[in-house]
Design a protein that fits this description.
4 copies of one chain form a homotetramer.
Chain A: H1 4-26, H2 31-66, H3 70-87
Chain lengths: ~90, ~90, ~90, ~90
């Protein structure tokens, strides 16, 4: 995976953020403030996804599409379409 | 564009759906019912986007990535990453 | 519905936008440009939904919650939670 | 907050899930599999948000809307509209 360390750093930070939100819940924070923090986590996850996808397009997908294995080509293109479709449902 | 007639048919149907929602507004329909119809339109638009993207991956993107113009290759990959990023914001 | 004319105007404009996108499809526009226009329509629909919901909260929901019919109160609160849940899936 | 223990349990599980995804990144898992796991986390976060919002509507919002402080009433209604609007952007 491209930019592995940067992505890993972001994921660690997101896991910490989620734990912090759990702390807010225990301190009986205002519901709306908790929801806003969850939305911030969602935005951070979207950024990680975009970054992973960009790396994927430039590495795996490019290699497969330039390769001669038509099945493999089809598989990586379908994967990208699938994650795109799923992204509109979460 | 691949499947042009099918995509055009879906867009015409969506435009009609939006006009129907305007009719509901004029008949003072229950707000929640109007919102649910708008959400149905959003889901239909997501399907059109996925379908266009699939065609794009199999045609333009495949052609560009298999081609020898590195700038063009970069451009189409960036376009896909951009629409993916934007899709998480609408 | 509150701000009925403004909402109706937005919906008419959105229906026109969708028809314009159909025109782009027929003129064989670049797939990515078509997808970006669809995303603009979705952002506009989100604005309409938020506007309708705001009006709903201040009118129907406020009336029901201040009323003495516990079933009706429950029903309107459930409706708002439902559209919120659905909104994360489209 | 209503159902505090259940919500806290879900958040702890989500934090663990994110750490697990970080582990996948370190083991150089296939990008698309990583993205699918991130999307699963986002779906789980959406469920938590809906659950918190439901509790909020039945407690804080109901109390405020049935109360006599118009400013407070306005504030809680605006809060709900705000999280709804934000939810369409993440």
């Amino acid at each position: 995976m491209e930019k592995r360390e940067e992505i890993s750093g972001r994921l660690k930070s997101i896991a910490g953020h989620v734990k912090g939100i759990d702390g807010m819940v225990h301190k009986d924070a205002y519901c709306i403030d908790v929801i806003k923090q969850i939305q911030a986590v969602q935005a951070a996850l979207n950024k990680v996804t975009t970054q992973i996808l960009e790396g994927h397009l430039h590495s795996c997908l490019t290699t497969a599409v330039r390769g001669e294995d038509a099945n493999e080509r089809e598989r990586v293109l379908k994967d990208v379409a699938d994650v795109f479709e799923m992204s509109s449902k979460v």
